[in-house]
Specification:
Elements lengths: L1 E3 L6 E4 L10 E6 L11 E7 L2 E8 L7 H5 L7 H5 L7 H16 L5 H29 L4 H21 L8 E2 L2 E2 L7 H14 L2 H7 L3 H7 L7 H7 L4 H4 L7 H4 L22 H28 L18 E9 L2 E9 L7 E5 L1 H7 L1 H4 L8 H7 L4 H5 L1
Parallel strand pairs: 2-3
Antiparallel strand pairs: 1-2, 3-4, 4-5, 6-7, 8-9, 9-10
Amino acid sequence: MTETTESTGTTRTTVGIGGAAESTDMVLNIGPQHPSTHGVLRLRLVLDGEVIQHAEPVIGYMHRGAEKLFEARDYRQIVMLANRHDWLSAFSNELGVVMAVERMLGMEVPARAVWTRTLLAELNRVLNHLMFLGSYPLELGGITPVFHAFREREQIQNVMEEISGGRMHFMFNRVGGLKEDLPAGWLGRVRHAVSEVRSRMDVYDGLVLGNEIFRARTRGVGVLSREAVHAYGVSGPIARASGVDFDLRRDEPYLAYGELQDTLNVVTREDGDCLARFECLLEQTHNALALADACLDRIAELAPGPINQRLPKVLKAPEGHTYAWTENPLGVNGYYLVSKGEKTPYRLKLRSASFNNIQALTELLPGTQVADMVAILGSLFFVVGDIDK
């Protein structure tokens, strides 16, 4: 298909496979079923030979209308909707919703629930990061790391499944705390799993970061400036890889993070390229394991007590509005909750990390080679469900 733009007089030819005349730009669609996109994403690229001139992410293929569905579910049921948009960070997604409702209710959560939530949030962070630490080299042609990543993920998945009954959608958070108390001996099994995973993390330091092909494909590629980070609202490890030193766990502590400042290490880099983003993710995984150990030590010292608050049969939030945000594995997740005093939210707006992060592709891809497109795309560490909601 050939089209002429009147304002510029240029001619564009849209093709599937093959080339175009020398005098035209080629419009190439990547996706919506490309294996490097962690979901159903379409990229519309305008090419001049092998160089990308313009890039437009086309989203919405996985849109479920979760924000509208929040309005038709009560405060117990919305937890189920909230944990599905980023299927690699289900526990963290639940957390933001219940924290928003608890803030509206003025509810104080028992100490055991606070520390256990912090522990599970960091274990979920490890699960999320290991997926990308394994799949990103795979997208660049390195097959081995993903097998290691899934072995390590199984160690953490086993203890998460034991406590919650779920492997992806844990559904363990409740308004006022957690679903139930910890199984006997579970803390010891978590400590063993964390130790096992930590003992094998050098695989990524040596096998991936020490690989000269991986470094050649990622160093200096897809540089995201600090100004672009602020302009697009990018957050999480991607923003910190560009030198933006911001982490809600340190800067606006929630849960038990205020007492974990000695252990918490906010990992930053200055280069802003694909390699820096991978290094941030890897070092943050090491720190998440250290935070999990610190939580285990503290939970072992806590006196016996409840892990949740008793709730009325019909839970209604008072009229008003609030905003709760958390440092999810992929970046800042925010929930803006508006209540009219009913048992369902009047409005619940979700600010997901991947939605903002993926917009940076329009800045990163122009001027780069098509061959570097997958390297840049994979280094943004996004989940398409988190974009589409």
